[in-house]
Amino acid sequence: MRMTKNILILSLLLLFLAKNNASKFKFTNVGCESFNQSLVVINTCRLKAINRDKTVINIELSLKEMVNRVMINGQMFKRENGYKPWLYNITTEGCQFYRRANDPVIKLIFNLFKSYSSLNHTCPYSPGTMRLWGFYLLPQSVPVPLPSGDYLVAVKWSIHNFLQLSTNVSFSFQEDFLN
Ligand SMILES: *[C@@H]1O[C@H](CO)[C@@H](O)[C@H](O)[C@H]1NC(C)=O
Ligand SMILES: *[C@@H]1O[C@H](CO)[C@@H](O)[C@H](O)[C@H]1NC(C)=O
Ligand SMILES: *[C@@H]1O[C@H](CO)[C@@H](O)[C@H](O)[C@H]1NC(C)=O
Ligand SMILES: *[C@@H]1O[C@H](CO)[C@@H](O)[C@H](O)[C@H]1NC(C)=O
C-alpha cells in the first residue's frame, strides 16, 4: 500500500518535471521553388501532421540531370515584425559536405538528416528522385541554443553556378520555461 503510494507520488513528480521541462518545437511551414524545370522538378513539398505534437516534412524532387557541383546557402531568420536575418548565414559546398563529416558542425547537421534523406552521400547525384521524408526534430535535438520565437531557415541551392532551387522551412520554438 505504502509502496504503491510512493510510486504514485514519484510518477506524478516525474510527470510534472517532464511537462515543465518540455521545450516545444513545431514546423509551421515549408516551401520549395525550382528556378529551372529542366534540372529540378518539385513533386512534393509539404508538412504532414502526425498528431498534435508532431508535424513532419515531406519533400520529393526529381533531378533531371547529373549534378556534381552544389553550393548551399542557409540563412536563418527570426520573426519580429516580419522575418529579420538572425545570426546564422552559412554557405558551403554541398559536394564536399559528406567528405568533411569530421567537422563537428557538419557532423551535427548530417546526423539530423541522414536517416530521413536520400541525399546522404557525396557527389555526383544521379538523375532520379531525391527525398527528405518524415523528417522531424525533437526540441532536445535542436542543435543550437534558441530563444523562443518563430524562425525561418531559407536554403538556396546553386547548381552548376546558378541559383536553381529554394527550399524554406519555418518553425516555432518555445523554450523550457524553467530555464
Ligand atoms: C524563402 O524565403 C526567402 C526569404 O524570405 C524568400 O525570398 C523566398 O522566396 C522563399 N522561397 C520559397 C520557396 O518560399
Ligand atoms: C537549367 O538546367 C539545364 C539542364 O541542366 C541547363 O542546361 C541550363 O543551363 C540550366 N539553366 C540555368 C540558367 O542554369
Ligand atoms: C548571406 O550570405 C550570402 C552569401 O555569402 C550573401 O549573399 C547574403 O547577402 C547574406 N545575407 C545576409 C542577410 O547577410
Ligand atoms: C542513405 O539513404 C538510403 C535511402 O534512404 C538508405 O538506405 C541508407 O541507409 C542511407 N545511408 C546512410 C549513411 O544513412
Give helix % range. 10-25%
Structural class: alpha+beta
If you compute it from the alpha carbons, what radius of gyration comes out, rounded to the nearest whole angstrom? 20 Å
Q: What is the CATH topology descriptor?
A: Ganglioside M2 Activator Protein, Chain: A
Major pleated sheet: 5 strands, antiparallel
Q: What is the N-to-C succession of helices and strands?
A: HEEEEEHHEEE
Overall mean pLDDT = 83
Number of E strands: 8
Name the bound molecules: 2-acetamido-2-deoxy-beta-D-glucopyranose
Tally of discrete structural domains: 1
- According to CATH, the homologous superfamily is Ganglioside GM2 activator
Treating each run of at least 4 consecutive H or I residues as one helix, how many helices? Answer: 3
Protein name: MD-2-related lipid-recognition domain-containing protein
Pfam families: DUF1091
Organism: Drosophila willistoni
Keywords: Signal
Pick out its properties.
179 residues; alpha+beta; Ganglioside M2 Activator Protein, Chain: A; five-stranded antiparallel beta sheet; three-stranded antiparallel beta sheet; 19% helix; binds 2-acetamido-2-deoxy-beta-D-glucopyranose; MD-2-related lipid-recognition domain-containing protein; signal; DUF1091
Write the layout of secondary structure elements.
Layout: H1 2-21, E1 24-34, E2 40-51, E3 54-63, E4 70-79, E5 83-93, H2 94-97, H3 104-113, E6 128-135, E7 149-159, E8 162-174
Antiparallel strand pairs: 1-8, 2-3, 3-6, 4-5, 4-7, 7-8
This protein binds 2-acetamido-2-deoxy-beta-D-glucopyranose (4 copies).
One 2-acetamido-2-deoxy-beta-D-glucopyranose is lined by residues 73, 75, 85, 89, 91.
